[in-house]
Amino acid sequence: MSEIHKGDRVVCIDATPIPISPNGLSGTDFTFPGGFIAEGDVYFVSTVAKDYRGGQTLRLVGHPVLACGREVHWNGLRFRKLSAHTAIQQAEKAIQAQPNIPVPIS
């Protein structure tokens, strides 16, 4: 897995609605003011830190996660760094999903 850095774009690969928490907190201890993450969606990384096992944890622009009212990081295992190739594939998929809109000829 590629190291993720501040400013990188990441794609969500695991949006299981069960928080990954080593502290024994339950799901009701967490709130998501920016909404929960969604598989396949792309996010911008604002902060990267290490967890107690040496794995990466992330804060995402516009998608904070609060544990008992305190902002915490998302578990980095939920995300993969977005490569240029993946970004192009996602852009092509988005274009294909658009309805055919006639272009006026001047």
What does this structure look like?
- This protein is an alpha+beta fold and 106 residues long.
- It has one domain.
- Helix content is 13%, strand content 29%.
- The protein is built from one helix and eight strands; from the N terminus they run E-E-E-E-E-E-E-E-H.
- Strands 7-4-3-1-8 form a five-stranded antiparallel β-sheet, with no helix packed on it.
- Strand 5 and strand 6 form a beta hairpin.
- The mean pLDDT is 83.
Q: Give the low-pLDDT segments.
A: none
How far the N terminus sits from the C terminus, by CA atoms, comes to: 50 Å
Residue share in β-strands: 25-35%
Rg estimate, integer Å = 17 Å
Number of helices: 1
| Helix/strand structural class | alpha+beta
How would you write the strand order of the largest sheet? 7-4-3-1-8
Report the order of strands and helices: EEEEEEEEH
Dominant shape: globular
Question: Total number of β-strand segments?
Answer: 8
**How many discrete domains?**
1
Give the rounded overall mean pLDDT. Answer: 83
Major sheet attributes? 5 strands, antiparallel
Approximately how much helix is present in the residues?
10-25%
List the helices and strands and how they pair.
Elements: E1 9-12, E2 30-31, E3 42-50, E4 56-60, E5 65-67, E6 70-72, E7 74-75, E8 79-81, H1 84-97
Antiparallel strand pairs: 1-3, 1-8, 2-5, 3-4, 4-7, 5-6
Could you write a compact summary of the structure shown?
With 106 residues, this protein is α+β, with helices and mostly antiparallel strands.
Q: Which labels suit this protein?
A:
single chain; about 110 residues; alpha+beta; five-stranded antiparallel sheet; three-stranded antiparallel sheet; 1 helix; about 15% helix; about 30% strand; globular
